[in-house]
Amino acid sequence: MEGRVTDQPWQGDACSLVDAFRAGERSPVEELDAALDGIERSDLNAFAHLDPSGARAAAASADVSLPFGGVPIGVKELDRVAGWPFTEASVPLKDRVAERDSVLVQRVRAAGAVLPGLTTSSEFGGVNLTRTNLHGATRNPWGLEHTPGGSTGGTASAVAGGLITLGTGGDGGGSLRIPGGFTGLVGLKCTYGRIPKGPGMIVGSLTAVLGCLSRSVRDTARFLDVTNGFDHRDPYSLLRVDGWEAGLGSHVEHLRGKRVAIVPDLGVAVVHPEVAEIVQRNAEALVADAGLEPVDLPVKLPELSYEWALSGLSEVRMELGDLYPDCEADLTLEIGFGLKVATEIYNLDVRARIEEQRTTMNEAMAAIFDDVDFVIAASNPDVAFVAEGPLPTEVAGTRTELGNNGALTIPANVFGSPAISIPVGTSRELPVGMQVLGRHHEEALLLDLALLAERERPWPLVAPGSPC
Asked: In sequence order, which residues have a C-beta less than 8 Å from that of residue 115 and are 6 or more positions away?
């Protein structure tokens, strides 16, 4: 995984950049300057805020013996960095500033990372494209007219676009796997609670997890080593597990004979035929590589109604406080409309239906994992749609509900189980992601399956022609 000359941002993965620092082939200051220059020249609109002076000070004193020593890592703008904007990508909160670092940011800093700035997100992380009234549309480096997805769109754009090697993100309904699939990156959604949230952790729907978007499996494993483990500010966080990177590739024999169902549409989504064919072909290759036992399992996941979408809006309402409803005109169409509808119809009966739907989904997912160890599906119903939106209502000439866009990813969020998006090629010159869903607490097996795919069928680490 080679980098380029020093006047360009590193085009390899973050681990190889650390190796270059340690070998004296490149310095953290050189890398930061190249990254900042690339960001300034870029038309991706991947960053919402930059802190060049703070980043240069960190780069000048970086300890390259640390896991991410000297590596520029972008922070998704929904996270907290002390002294930086904490806007939720929303105009009504544009003047709000974070008073302290989040636990995630504390741990990334402690691992030696240099933080150049905040990467763009959808407003409150509410939709899977990154276009807001505050920052405009963020663009996909594989095709600027397309979205990198959302809500972790800025991180996806910056990492796939060759500006930085790694960035943080979150996944409450696919917000790592969707942009990972759209931009050709590795996107791991961990078991719920693997990486703690806080301070100010909001319990909410118990679906959102933290993570990263990366160019390689080992980068994601190292990120887990750095960030996982219990913190009492998040009472639902899990105990620390060590050895994610060191254990890569060590579960190959354990994988043999495990049962897998290949269901590109999960029995609930409308998937473009070409995307489905690419996923099916790569899934069969991965099954053969790993020695898995394919099972013809009928999968038909339940659909979640619009009421489910309303359940997360209580968090948005809490954040806006007394600013709402006067600020409604400043909100994006999706968030403004959702809040209005939720305010008018949300009641105990609606809440009961939401809980019933969650129970139904949990039981359906549990029944699947009674019979198989893994399910392989598409990460997205189709390749990336237009950057400005709206969300697509048609796939390959077939009308769909808006919920189709997250139908493949939301089930793992509701169930709390891990899933990973792996790059598996292109359709119409845009990336396709293959999603592998696993049982709770078995991220190590998903990482080893992704590692097998990476070794046997390597993917481009950055989009063609990057950095922009």
From this structure: 51, 54, 55, 58, 72, 73, 74, 75, 81, 105, 108, 109
pTM beyond 0.85: the answer is: yes
Domain parsing of the chain, residue ranges: 14-456
Which amino acid is residue 246, in one-letter code? Answer: A
User: Rounded CA gap, 18 and 9, in Å?
Assistant: 13
Question: Is-catalytic flag, 258?
Answer: no
Query: Do the bridges between strand 259-262 and strand 293-294 make them parallel or antiparallel, or are there none, so unpaired?
Result: parallel
User: Residues 76, 189, 197, 258: which is the catalytic one?
Assistant: 76
In whole angstroms, what separates CA 313 from the centre of its chain? 20
Residue 76 among the catalytic residues: yes
Residue ranges in the chain modelled with pLDDT below 50: 1-4, 468
* Per-residue pLDDT tens over the stretch 10-30: 999 999 999 999 999 999 999
Q: Categorise residue 198: left if φ over 0, alpha if ψ from -120 to 50, beta otherwise.
A: left
Residue 402: DSSP 8-state? G
Catalytic residue among 90, 102, 122, 151: 151
Token duo for residue 352: 């009961």
**For 14-456, which CATH class?**
alpha beta
Choosing from 16, 90, 121, 175, which is the catalytic residue? 175
Active site residue 175: yes
The sign one gets for the Cα dihedral 56, 60, 64, 67 is negative
- Torsion angles phi and psi, residue 399, rounded to 5: -70, 140
Kind plus residue range of the DSSP H or E element containing 210 = strand 209-214
Contacts of 303 by beta carbon, 8 Å cutoff, 6+ apart: 268, 401, 403, 407
